[in-house]
Structure formats: C-alpha cells, structure tokens
Amino acid sequence: MEVFEYIKSRRKKKPLHFTLIDPDKQEPEEAGETAKKAKEYGSDAVMVGGTFGDAYGEKLNRTIAEIKKAGLPVILFPNSAQQLSPEADALFFMSLLNSRSTQYLIDEQMKGSLLVEKYRLEPLSMAYLIVESGSPTGAGWAGDVRPIPREKPEFAAGYALAAKYFGMKFVYLEAGSGAEKPVPNEMIKAVKKVLGSDVFLIVGGGIRDGKIALEKIQSGADIIVTGTIVESDERKFKEIISVIKG
Ligand code: 1GP
C-alpha cells in the first residue's frame, strides 16, 4: 500500500504517531533497535532526518535498511537534496514556508526532485512551518527562519491555508527538536480550523509526555512526532504513544 493511503486509512481510526530518528546520532544497528521499539509500542511510521551532521549516502542507506527490518513505513524528512536515499518508502517533499532563504523554499527541491523520481520515492507534499518556542532551535537557525510568534495563531493559519490552496497534503507545525515550549494549543486549533479534514496536521518539537501529546491531539493534531524522547526516556515514549492511541 502506498504510504499516503496507509496514513489516510489509519487516521480514519485514530490519530497517528511518527518516530523521528536522526541518522547522524547513532550507528545503523542502534537505529534499527529503536525502530523495533517504535513498532512494538504502536508508532505508525519512522521519519528519518536531521538538521546537522554527515549521515548521507552510505550511512544513511544502511541506517534506513536497518530501520526497515522493523516493518514500519520509512519516510525521509530531509534537510536538503543531499539527504535522499533509495532505501526509503516515501519522503516529505517539503517547503519551509517561513524561511527567508529561497534555498529551503524551492532550490533544494529543484535539485532533489529528479532524484526522488529516480529512486521511486513517494513524495508527500508538506508545508513546514517553524514556530517560536522559547529559545532558538537548530532547525530555525539552519533554515534561516523568521519563526511564527506564539501569540499570532492567525499567521500560522494564513500559511496553512495558503499551503492547502497550493494543494499540499500535510502541514507540519514545528517547535524544533528539544524545544523549550511545544507549539501552542491555540495555534493548532486555528490551523486545523482552516485545514479541515483534507490536509493532515503534524505537530512536533518538545513533546515530552502523554499530557502534552493529548493536548495537541485534542487541539486538532492528526499526527504527533517525537524524536528526543525516544533517545532519552523509553517509558515516556511508550506513554505518549499509548495516550495518542487512547
Ligand atoms: C523535530 O519535531 C521533531 O523535527 C521532534 O522534536 O526531538 O523535541 O521530539 P523532539
């Protein structure tokens, strides 16, 4: 089954959880073990990507090959046209809409699109939006972003509706990995209101326990992404997934 259809059919039953694995932070075998845990605890897919580092080419391919053994779909979450691999099932073909640099709006996509076709990766079109989260994050800095102010949910809604009009299938509200504060509930509500059920709303960054995950789901998130917690606290990781699947 195509990954988009898989997401659509699972969302009809429950909200989803995606596990983010940074290929730069561990050896391929360890990434494979993490993916097995993700599957066991009920996560729906594994996203592979990271802001920084050198996990491209061979290491990226080996990491994904290990992750795939767990049996979950693997979706690339690339930081550039360099972070592509034929081993993955799909990729978030994303544009960082609040970047000030054309590099993250369209240039990397132009460089990568023919490779996406060659590798037969399923492109999942996504608007990526970085939200102010207390202190600067790696994604915001690296992406040359003007973060959306926390008290301006209407700015996020404006970007999200523009993305929907462009035909994008996903909107990702990102607080940044390890964010001090997650995306505000009011902003999630405002964005979901304009997206309706046609576009999936992904929320991630700084989601550290089940209570936070539940608030984000109740505000309108379709998919919750966690990265840091999978590396630091297995109990909380399990708790977050069980709350989402409640
Ligand atoms: C980062 O939103 C993801 O792209 C995950 O963030 O590492 O804080 O879970 P955390």
Describe the overall structure.
- The protein has 246 residues and is of the alpha/beta class.
- The protein contains ten helices and eight strands.
- Strands 1-2-3-4-5-6-7-8 form an eight-stranded parallel β-barrel, surrounded by eight helices.
- The chain is globular and about 40 Å long.
- The relative contact order is 0.15.
- The mean pLDDT is 96.
- Bound molecules: SN-glycerol-1-phosphate.
- The site of SN-glycerol-1-phosphate has 14 residues, from strand 8 and helix 9.
State the main characteristics:
246 residues; alpha/beta; TIM Barrel; eight-stranded parallel beta barrel; 10 helices; 8 strands; 17% strand; binds SN-glycerol-1-phosphate
Topology (elements, then pairings):
Blueprint: H1 3-13, E1 16-21, H2 28-41, E2 45-48, H3 57-68, E3 74-76, E4 90-96, H4 102-118, E5 122-130, H5 138-142, H6 153-166, E6 170-174, H7 185-195, E7 200-204, H8 210-219, E8 223-226, H9 228-232, H10 234-245
Parallel strand pairs: 1-2, 1-8, 2-3, 3-4, 4-5, 5-6, 6-7, 7-8
Helix pairs in contact: 2-3, 6-7, 8-10
This protein binds SN-glycerol-1-phosphate.
